[in-house]
Write a structure and sequence with these properties.
The protein is an alpha+beta fold and about 140 residues long. It contains one helix and six strands; from the N terminus they run αββββββ.
């Protein structure tokens, strides 16, 4: 009876170790993204990096470490009520936080300037949080 208990305990411990090892993020920092593939921010040897199609982000004044961007795209409603998303022309999805809600109509095209806030918690749970400082309609 005692041998069976020890065997079950060891089996449980081995299973727990195997599960933890499977969940470990071993690729980060090795030139691989967390998903296991190559880091999308690096270029392959022998290829020239391509120029960005949007102006580079700047650091927002008075917000150390915060990145200010300007993005143009189409607005859409999020899956949660009150959540408004901007799909930029480059395909990035931003969660718009603040700003003049009167100008935020689903399907409208706008240019938004704001500060990226990746640490912001939200019930919306989609898009990169962007604290809106200005928004204007574009044709």
């Amino acid at each position: 009876m005692r041998q069976t208990t020890v065997l079950r305990t060891l089996t449980g411990l081995l299973l727990a170790v195997a599960l933890l090892a499977a969940c470990a993020d071993t690729g980060a920092g090795d030139g691989e993204a967390a998903g296991g593939g190559p880091d999308p921010t690096t270029t392959a040897p022998g290829t020239a990096p391509t120029a960005p199609t949007t102006p580079p982000p700047t650091t927002a004044p008075g917000s150390p470490g915060k990145t200010q961007i300007t993005a143009t795209g189409t607005l859409r409603d999020g899956v949660e009520p009150g959540c408004v998303l901007l799909r930029s022309e480059q395909g990035t999805v931003y969660l718009l936080v603040g700003g003049d809600r009167g100008k935020l109509t689903a399907g409208g095209r706008v240019q938004v300037t704001g500060v990226l806030s990746p640490d912001l918690l939200s019930i919306c749970q989609e898009g990169q949080p962007l604290l809106v400082s200005s928004i204007k309609p574009v044709p």
